[in-house]
Design goal:
With about 550 residues, the chain is mainly alpha-helical. The chain has 22 helices and 4 strands.
């Protein structure tokens, strides 16, 4: 038995020593997270029937509104918990938080599956909120860890990580459609994913508690208090990160990771900010706020399509069966995500290298790319509103979605670059809260209510009798197809604000001067270069060329 314990310890230490293994873990877990998100829209008619017959809603006719609320409940739980977990990484081992969060996620999937035999919409809604809470711990740790450990291939690894979003969601559509028509029903979809995710949750508990501090870059550690102030990220990002994590220019360690972990613990009480302090740290930076609002517009548009996409395809007469609509719609989105998101990562790496060679900031590179590609993608998606043939509808949706998925990596990188390094986990969580508050939470409810009002007969419903084509669209939907296209237009308009806000972010990153009045090196970006000085947030800026880390012996 002792030999087995020793073997597990050696195995976990080996995993902890290889950042690529842990980044692969993040990618795999992210995939299953988004498969879960695709279950409800992928089997919307079965969930509509459940909602209509649930004990609490008493045969309601506003099923789309309540369906949208299920998605919103997930996002509410996710958004609130993301800020809490983003702050907790200052005081708790990040991978322990991830393990706890994924365990909660597994429990929520079981509860969601139990809602069907109990006939309880409340249980399903609560389970979806709990699922968001569980996922939050994972999401606030993953992006900063990947940024710290991917070296010159930040865009590539972030691109792979974010590819799991469209691909996982699309797989979730098909997975839900197949499971819903199987003997296990849609509850089986939740039970099975809980079984699959459990080993990944247990994996986190096997890792050393300080795995984040023993990683290659280690920027998940809090900023250490130095005798001449707090280190903040600078314009020369590679040099600054090396200095920040204690690596000299020749690549050698300036101090041992365990010593850094001890130093971090000894100064913890003085450098751990409260949630309120971290909120203000983010809100005082215009670039962060602009990025968050742009991400909100993007998220609102994307979830509007993802929640009601199969229903649109059926309502416009392209498909008679929900299974076919979900499979094709999911396939188009999967291909778009598989093509667009990795391309976005590769393009981001090239743009970052080009901007760095020109002495321009990573924030400017990320926001410019997000702005331009968002505008192009939105313009192409607009064609779905007027498209009549199936090939034009699906073609414009697929190409436009691929362009939008290209922006995933630069949008998230823009958020990471808009705050100091020590605030990045919280910034990711807070940005998510703002994104959902102004995008994902209201979007499904508003779009669902608008669809119920303008095209009430265009909601898939389970037919009576033994009709093999059920669920189907009511015949009255034919006369409401123009109104259904108005609902599509509303989603595109919502999406269009993303390009506008990232255009403003681009302007901010180029034109807001730093404290010396030099354009392109702005305090709002969380980066800059120059002599040591105090900014409005009270932090001391230290020029990268003069940075050394000196840890007090006591």
């Amino acid at each position: 038995m002792g030999c087995d314990t020793s073997s597990w310890r050696r195995w976990s230490e080996w995993l902890a020593s290889d950042p690529k293994m842990l980044m692969t873990f993040f990618i795999l877990a992210n995939f299953f997270n988004f498969v879960d998100r695709g279950i409800i829209p992928g089997a919307s008619s079965e969930f509509n029937a459940f909602i209509k017959n649930s004990a609490e809603l008493n045969n309601t006719d506003s099923v789309d509104t309540w369906l949208g609320l299920l998605q919103s409940m997930f996002i509410v739980g996710y958004s609130i918990a993301a800020c809490i977990f983003g702050n907790m990484v200052h005081t708790h081992p990040p991978f322990l938080l991830v393990g706890i969060g994924l365990s909660v996620w597994c429990a929520s999937a079981v509860l969601a599956g139990l809602s069907e035999p109990t006939g309880s919409y409340t249980l399903l809604a609560g389970a979806r909120m709990l699922s968001g809470v569980g996922e939050a711990s994972f999401q606030v740790v993953s992006s900063p860890y990947i940024q710290d450990n991917s070296g010159a291939h930040t865009g590539f690894w972030l691109g792979l990580f974010y590819t799991a979003i469209p691909f996982g969601t699309a797989v979730g559509y098909g997975y839900a459609a197949v499971m819903a028509t199987s003997p296990f029903g849609w509850p089986g979809a939740f039970f099975l994913e809980a079984i699959v995710m459990t080993p990944l949750a247990l994996f986190c508990f096997l890792l050393p508690r300080d795995v984040h501090s023993k990683s290659k870059d280690g920027l998940l550690l809090d900023t250490l208090a130095l005798d001449d102030g707090m280190v903040e990220d600078g314009d020369d990002h590679d040099h600054d990160r090396d200095a920040y994590r204690g690596v000299s220019e020749d690549g050698s360690d300036m101090y041992d990771a365990n010593d850094l972990h001890k130093a971090r613990s000894s100064t913890a009480s003085s450098i751990h900010p409260s949630i309120t302090e971290e909120i203000m740290q983010c809100l005082r930076r215009p670039l962060f706020v602009s990025n968050a609002l742009g991400y909100a517009a993007y998220g609102g548009g994307i979830i509007g399509f993802s929640t009601f996409g199969p229903a649109f395809a059926m309502g416009l007469g392209y498909y008679a069966q929900e299974t076919s609509a979900s499979m094709v719609f999911g396939g188009v989105m999967a291909v778009a995500g598989l093509v667009g998101t990795p391309i976005g990562g590769a393009v981001t790496d090239k743009v970052l290298a080009r901007f760095k060679a020109q002495g321009r900031t990573a924030a400017e590179a990320a926001t410019s790319l997000a702005c331009i590609i968002n505008i192009i993608g939105t313009a192409i998606v607009l064609a779905t509103v007027f498209a009549k043939p199936l090939w034009l509808f699906m073609g414009s949706l697929g190409i436009g979605a691929a362009c939008l998925f290209v922006t995933t990596t630069p949008m998230n990188l823009a958020t990471l670059e808009s705050v100091p390094p020590e605030n990045r986990p919280f910034a990711m969580g807070f940005s998510t809260l703002l994104m959902h508050a102004f995008g994902d939470v209201p979007s499904p409810v508003v779009i669902g209510a608008l669809k119920d009002w303008l095209a009430p007969h265009c909601t898939p419903s389970t037919g009576e009798g033994d009709d093999d084509d059920a669920p189907a669209i009511d015949d009255g939907c034919v006369e409401e197809r123009d109104d259904l296209r108005i609902v599509l237009l509303a989603i595109v308009v919502w999406l269009s604000f993303s390009g506008v806000m990232y255009g403003f972010s681009w302007w901010l990153s180029r034109n807001l001067p730093n404290e010396k009045g030099v354009p392109g090196e702005c305090e709002c970006c969380g980066s800059g270069q120059g002599s040591a000085s105090h900014g409005p947030d009270g932090m001391t800026r230290v020029p990268s060329a003069n940075r050394t880390l000196r840890i007090n012996e006591d």
